[in-house]
Specification:
The complex is a heterodimer of chains A (273) and B (652).
Chain A lengths: L1 H21 L9 H15 L3 H13 L5 H13 L3 H14 L4 H11 L12 H8 L9 H20 L9 H20 L1 E3 L5 E3 L3 H5 L1 E5 L3 E5 L8 E6 L3 E8 L2 E6 L3 E6 L3 E3 L1
Antiparallel strand pairs in A: 1-2, 3-6, 3-9, 4-5, 6-7, 7-8
Helix pairs in contact in A: 2-3, 3-4, 4-5, 5-6, 8-9
Chain B lengths: L1 H24 L2 H25 L5 E7 L2 E2 L5 E9 L9 E2 L5 E15 L2 E14 L6 E3 L4 E5 L2 E5 L4 E3 L2 H11 L4 E6 L10 E9 L3 E6 L7 E4 L6 E6 L2 E12 L3 E5 L2 E8 L34 E8 L2 E5 L18 E7 L3 E3 L3 E10 L13 H6 E5 L3 E7 L2 E14 L3 E4 L4 E6 L4 E6 L4 E5 L6 H15 L34 H30 L1 H22 L4 H20 L8 H12 L2 H20 L8 H23 L1
Classes of the chains: A alpha+beta (273), B alpha+beta (652).
């Protein structure tokens, strides 16, 4: 009697655990205050008070409405204010949550057209082909990718667990496909990142994982060879220039550009996406 | 002698006999081939000999005319007459300052005359004397040519350059019936007034055409009248050919159209049949007396003459001062103005298109729209389209049509008078200024979206431009402005961010294999139990034994019955638990088996004692329930629980 009860309890606990894991992050409680701020921000934007609108949008984001739409609206306000770098950063954040959204893509392209610096880094050859493998990352958000990974991963282990019960005609093929799918999603979730211009690239080393896209948000930035004002200015960047941010030392941030150009800027001059 | 003759004839006969004998040995086919080759060789040899005997090469020089002025153009022809296969290189002339020699072509003829094949190659040249050449006899530059590798020096006769007066007479005689002049329709035009210039050639049938040299019309605008510049009219036997130009004097003052040269081709009069000597007509082919020195195919010959028309002098009159201050350009000519408005009622922000069409013979090219006045600027925003200018040649004049498309966007709703556009022109007929102005018109502007006005006006202009291309009637989309797409304001914009946290992901990554493993073993165990009933019985032996003892406790049975039931329950329990058949074993044998399995002597002894007690009670024959029934069942349960515990402990 005692043994039978313990087995049932174990099964129930297992189901609970799986359910909890699956629905752990579903939280949709309305935040009244944040919603009010968003409404006021929209009204301010319509009236042409873009600075006020940007401020309210930022407050709404801080209070929890941290979704792609709000970042998009904030970016629009920045664009109207002529702060194209900040607008690009916000559009990129919106795009991370709403990939392939046509509005975001259109406005981002418009904002990028105002960027002063032309930095070209088109992948070619093998690099282009490899990065094409990561195309799904530009169509699915991080949330969606994690879900896809979780579902394929759980499905794989569920099939493995139900091995004694379920009789599949081509079990090896099904299990192999699921394993490949899981590995692909794992690669997208854990082994890829966005480069400075938002393209997915491999990030299989620790150093590569530490690089983050960033945007210059001030009209002009002197990029120095080291992390203090005593170092020489090696080149200059302007509002809207998209770079990759690396190591941070105090108030200074190392930035990287194609063709091994790198330097240090003050952290306040760039916004990490 | 007779012997010699006999020997010779014998030898001859021997030769022919041997030849015939040898020939008979050769097959017929080879005989034919050899014979054919021999025949061809003989024929070639005969032709070669004939060619060698043919007439030697003959170079004939024709120069016409032999006398002329520096204005005349002389024709030189060098004809090489000889065998058909002749290697002839073109003549080479020495450099000369006195004459300019230019080739006008090469021709060749091949013909048989009296069974003799002959060929002629003619090189034609045009000789123009240097205008500074003094009258008198002048030698042409020496020339030579290579014929079949041999250099032949050409004997070119000298030319006689006549004095100017003589030359003029000669020219008039040679070009009798040709008159070349240049004239204008109005020698005293106003500045900016268009005039028609004509270069006219009045000639009889001897005029075969010519080349009119272009001249610089300094001080004039020159209008393009391509396709209309040549006119021809007939007056009796005289044909007048005119080359027209439409000129517009740029400014007042005296102007001169420089002299103009016409190089005319004139059919020369037929020479006398008695004419002898060299020249063109000494050509042996044409010198057939049968046709009176003229070939049926030769209708005559042409000579080139250079005719010069006298310059034309004009006195361009200045325009009188305008009657009013007018900063813009004033066209001179008859000009009319027409106005068109596409709509009278528009929404605010929409544009109306005002079209001004100016037509006339005044030069409208420099004409521009006057600037917008301050009053109009306050009322309308004006967008001028690129003006369209068309010209048409009619009746010796160029007719200009200039169209201005003006998009007007009213800045406020209401009734608005359209701006009035004024153009000042000068009419040369009346010799007075004329003011052209658009008629006063009003438009009604309804309230509308003010923000759109600039973009719409620009779009209208773009559409108007697109409509001017008739090839494709579809209009291209004109990007007026690039702007942001609007805010996201739906319910989705207010939702909180969907997050799949890293911790949840880590939990799933760790838990899934563990759960899967547990589930796997669980299901595997279930399957084993299902497949092995003895194992299931072993697993459930304790439970079944407890249930059997509980059933005995509640039953009202005799002591022997209880003992039999308890003994059976215990035997079943031990059989299932130990997975062995113990039904036929004695108590001591069961104890021994239990001792081996459970490794517990006391427990084995206790079971053996209980079995013995059950057997004693069974075989005692007691029918009534004994008071120790409860103790017996309790002893059984205790032993079963102890054995279960013992086996569990041992398994751990």
């Amino acid at each position: 009697m005692h043994r039978i009860c313990s087995a049932k309890t174990f099964a129930a606990l297992l189901i609970l655990l799986l359910s909890a894991a699956a629905f752990l992050n579903i939280a949709a409680a309305e935040n009244n205050e944040a919603s009010s701020l968003a409404f006021r921000a929209n009204a301010a934007y319509s009236e042409g008070k873009y600075a006020r609108a940007a401020d309210l949008y930022r407050q709404a984001i801080a209070l929890g409405i941290n979704n792609g739409h709000m970042h998009y609206n904030l970016a629009n306000a920045f664009y109207r204010l002529g702060r194209y770098g900040a607008a690009i950063a916000s559009y990129r954040r919106a795009l991370a949550q709403m990939p392939a959204d046509p509005d975001v893509l259109s406005n981002l392209a418009l904002a990028r057209s105002h960027a002063v610096d032309r930095i070209e880094d088109e992948p070619r050859g093998l690099r282009y082909l490899l990065e094409r493998m990561l195309f799904l990352r530009t169509h699915l958000s991080t949330y969606g990718l994690r879900w896809c990974f979780a579902v394929s991963y759980l499905l794989f282990w569920a099939l493995a667990a139900l091995h004694p019960l379920i009789v599949l005609r081509r079990r090896g093929l099904v299990m192999g496909t699921l394993a490949c799918l899981t590995l692909y999603f794992a690669l997208l979730v854990f082994g890829a990142r966005e480069d400075r211009s938002g393209r997915p690239v491999f990030a299989l080393t620790e150093a590569a994982c530490q690089l983050k896209p960033a945007v210059v948000v001030v009209p002009e930035v002197p990029v120095r060879s080291g992390n203090s004002d005593n170092f020489q200015v090696v080149f200059q960047l302007h509002d809207g220039a998209e770079v990759e941010a690396g190591e941070k030392r105090g108030d200074w941030l190392e930035i990287m550009l194609p063709e091994s150009r790198r330097g240090w800027v003050k952290h306040s001059h760039v916004e990490i996406i | 002698m007779g012997v010699a003759q006999n020997a010779a004839s014998a030898a001859k006969e021997f030769f022919w006999r041997q030849l015939r004998r040898s020939a008979r040995k050769i097959p017929a086919m080879w005989r034919s081939i050899v014979l054919g080759i021999i025949c061809c060789g003989v024929q070639q040899a005969l032709f070669a000999a004939a060619a060698q005997n043919a007439a030697a090469q003959n170079v004939q020089v024709f120069l016409e005319p032999r006398k002329g002025s520096v204005d005349d153009i002389f024709e030189l022809r060098l004809t090489v007459i000889g065998r058909s296969k002749t290697d002839i290189s073109p003549p080479a002339f020495a450099a000369s300052r006195s004459f300019s020699i230019s080739s006008t072509g090469t021709s060749s003829k091949h013909h048989f005359i009296n069974g003799v094949q002959r060929s002629e190659v003619t090189f034609s040249y045009q000789i123009e004397p240097n205008p500074r050449l003094t009258p008198g006899q002048h030698e042409l530059p020496p020339a030579q040519m290579a014929i079949d590798g041999k250099t032949v020096k050409l004997d070119i006769p000298p030319l006689t350059i006549l004095p100017a007066d003589t030359s003029h007479e000669t020219r008039q005689r040679a070009a009798s019936g040709i008159d070349f002049t240049q004239l204008v329709d109005n020698p005293t035009p106003f500045a900016g007034e268009q005039i028609t210039y004509r270069a006219e050639v009045a000639a009889d049938a001897s005029f075969m055409g010519g080349t009119l040299e272009d001249i610089e019309f300094t001080g004039f605008w020159r209008e393009d009248i391509s396709g209309n510049e040549k006119q021809t009219r007939r007056a009796g036997s005289i044909t007048v050919r005119s080359f027209l130009e439409v000129l517009i004097p740029k400014k007042d003052g005296p102007l001169e159209i420089p002299p103009r040269i016409l190089t005319a081709k004139i059919q020369a009069a037929r020479p006398s049949p008695r004419r002898s000597g060299g020249g063109l007509f000494s050509d042996p082919f044409f010198a057939d007396d049968l046709l009176h020195n003229w070939s049926l195919f030769d209708a005559g010959r042409t000579i080139s003459k250079r005719l010069t028309a006298a310059p034309v002098r004009l006195n361009v009159r200045p325009l009188p001062p305008p009657p009013m201050p007018y900063p813009g350009y004033i066209p001179t000519g008859m000009v009319k103005l027409a106005t068109f408005l596409d709509k009278r009622k528009v929404n605010q922000g929409e544009s109306v298109t005002l079209r001004l069409v100016l037509t006339g013979d005044g030069n409208l090219r420099p004409l521009e729209l006057p600037e917008q006045s301050a009053q109009d600027s306050a009322m309308f925003k004006r967008y001028d389209d690129k003006p369209d200018l068309k010209t048409e040649f009619d009746n010796g004049k160029v007719l200009f049509t200039k169209t201005f498309n003006i998009a007007l966007v009213a800045l406020s709703p209401g009734e608005h008078p359209l701006p009035v556009f004024k153009f000042l022109t000068f009419n040369p007929k009346t010799e007075s200024h004329e003011l052209l102005e658009t008629p006063p018109k009003t438009i009604t502007v309804l309230p509308g979206a003010v923000e759109e006005q600039n973009r719409l006006a620009a779009a209208n202009r773009a559409a108007q431009s697109a409509a001017d291309t008739p090839a494709d009637k579809r209009k291209e989309i004109t990007i007026v402005a690039e702007d942001l797409l609007p805010q996201h304001i739906g319910a989705a914009a207010l939702s909180t961010q969907k997050e799949f946290s890293g911790k949840a992901l880590a939990a799933i990554i760790l838990a899934a294999p563990l759960c899967s493993l547990a589930l796997f073993f669980f299901l595997a165990q279930r399957r084993r139990l299902r497949d092995d009933p003895a194992l299931l019985k072993q697993k459930n032996a304790g439970t079944q034994a407890f249930l059997a003892l509980a059933a005995l406790r509640g039953a009202q049975i005799s002591s022997s019955g209880l003992a039999a039931g308890l003994r059976a329950a215990l035997y079943n329990y031990l059989g299932d638990r130990l997975r062995s058949n113990i039904q036929g074993l004695t108590a001591q044998e069961c104890a021994a088996l239990l001792r081996r399995t459970a490794q517990d002597d006391s427990l084995a002894q206790a079971f053996a004692a209980l079995f013995e007690r059950c057997e004693r009670l069974l075989y005692s024959g007691a029918t009534a329930p004994a008071p120790e029934h409860g103790a017996l069942l309790a002893e059984g349960e205790k032993l079963i629980a102890a054995l279960e515990e013992r086996l569990k402990t041992r398994r751990k």
